[in-house]
User: Fold TRI26 protein from Dryoscopus gambensis.
Amino acid sequence: EEGCQRHREPLEVFCKEDAALLCAICRESRAHRAHTVLPLPEAAREYQGQIQARLQTLKDDRDKLLAFREAEMGRNW
Assistant:
């Protein structure tokens, strides 16, 4: 996105409660004033770490399923 659709300002922070990108004007609004916000680079790093951890869990689960499938196919033969 180019920026805030409401204020036409650059998106500068990420609201953790609403999982939304905010401009400086939105950040100071009543809707977000009490929320936890992070600078965009910090939010990106945080979520990238979470995504990597979940991806690794999925890869491990896939490997277990493939090993189980291979064992079952071997038993059926």
